[in-house]
Amino acid sequence: MSNEKPYSPGLEGIIAGISSISEVNPEKQKLAYRGYDIEELADHSTYEEVAYLLLQGQLPKEPDLKAFVSELVAERQAPPRVFDILKSTPAAAGPMDALRTCVSFLGAVDPDAKDNSHEANIRKAHRLIAKMATIVAANYRIRAGLRPVAPSAELSHAANLFAMITGNEPNKEEARAFDVSLILYAEHTFNASSFTARVIASTLSDMHAAVTGAVGALKGPLHGGANEEAMKMLLEIGAASKAEEWVMNALAGKRRLMGFGHRIYKWGDSRVPTMKRLGRQLAEHSREKKWIEIAEVVERVMEREKKLYPNLDFPCAYVYHMLGLPVEVYTPVFAASRVVGWAAHVIEQHADNKLIRPDSSYHGHRDRAYVPMDQRH
C-alpha cells in the first residue's frame, strides 16, 4: 500500500493558503473583493476606491479616498532612468519583458526597498500602482515611435492611463468602461501571478521582487495574453456571417480559442456580464456593433459545441478595441490593474508568513550505482 501523498496536476483544488482578499463563492460562482460583490463594486465604485479596499481591507471614507488619490497622483512620474531602459530595450523583447525589467529597477531605487514592514509595503504599493501605469503607456508609445505622454494631475487613474496610451483624454463613456475593466482585472484569488508573488514574498524578499516575478508569470500565454489572442481571433473572423464556420473549422483543427473557459468558474465568469453590458453601451454610442455581433456568435457556438463560456478576457478584448487601444497593450494594461492585487497578497503574506515550500512526488530512478567516466556507454 502506497504512502504517497495525493497529487493534483497544476495544484487544482489544492488549498495553498488562507486569504481575506478575494473569493469566488463556490455555490454562487461569484467573485467578491473583501466580501463585496464584484458586480456591485463595478457598478458603484472607481478603480481608486477598489484599490484602497484591496490594500486596506475596507472601503475608504471620503477624506481617506482623497488622500489616497492625491498620493497616487503625486507618484505618477517614473524616474528618468526608466525611460532610458525602455528606449534601450531590444525590439525583439516584448512589452511584458520591458515592464518586468522596469519594475525590478524601481525596486532598486525605492526609498523603502529593504523595509518589509506593513507601512513601507503600503507606500511601495502606492508607488507601484502609480508608476506602472506610466511605464505601460510610455513603453507602448516608445515602441510605436511616439513620444511618451506625461501623466496628468487632473485625471482619474483610468483616464490618465488611457490618455497616456492614446494621446487623447477619454470621454465620459470611454473613461467609465476603461475604469470598470481595471476594477474587474484588479484581483482574482490565488491565480498564477498572485501565487508567484506570494511564494517570493514568503522568502521575505521584497515587494518589488515579488511583483517582478508576478509580471513574469502574467507574461505566460496560459495566464496573461488571452485578451490579445481573443481580439486577434475576432479580427481574423471579420464578420458575424463568417463566425460560426470559422469557429467550427478552428475546433475541427484542434485550435484553442482563447478567452473561453476558466478553472474556477464552471458556469461562466461572474465578471463577464458587466463587461458585456459596457461593450453594448459603447457599441450603441459609437454605432459600431460589428464586434458585439461576432462575439455573440462565437459565444453561442462555443457553448453549443464545447460547453465553454467566455471569461473576462473575451469581452475585454473587443471593448478595448472599441476604445481604440492597440492590441499589444492589452496584457500590460492587465498588469497595471492587477498590481494592486499582487501588492495586497504580498502584504498579507508578510503579515503572517510561513515559507511556501511544497513537497513533490518523485518518479525518477532510485539506487543507481555511480559509473566511472571510462565505463559509461
Give a description of the structure.
With 377 residues, the protein is an all-alpha fold. It folds into two domains: 227 residues, Citrate Synthase, domain 1, CATH 1.10.580; 97 residues, Cytochrome P450-Terp, domain 2 (Cytochrome p450-Terp, domain 2, Orthogonal Bundle). Helices cover 58% and strands 2% of the residues. The protein is built from 16 helices and three strands. Strands 1-2-3 form a three-stranded antiparallel β-sheet. Helix 3 packs across helix 6, helix 5 runs antiparallel to helix 6 and helix 9 runs antiparallel to helix 10.
Nutshell version of this structure?
The chain has helices spanning 38-44, 47-56, 62-74, 80-88, 95-109, 118-143, 157-166, 172-185, 192-202, 207-219, 226-237, 240-252, 272-286, 290-306, 313-322, 330-351, and strands spanning 22-24, 31-33, 36-37.
Number of domains: 2
Radius of gyration: 22 Å
The CATH homologous superfamily of the largest domain is named Citrate Synthase, domain 1
- What is the average per-residue confidence, as pLDDT, rounded to a whole number? 95
Give start-end ranges of low-pLDDT stretches.
none
Number of strands: 3
Looking at the structure, the CATH topology of the largest domain is Citrate Synthase, domain 1
- Look at the structure and give the CATH class of the largest domain: Mainly Alpha
Helix-strand category: mainly alpha
Sketch the topology as an H/E string, one letter per element.
EEEHHHHHHHHHHHHHHHH
How many DSSP helices? 16
β-strand amount: under 5%
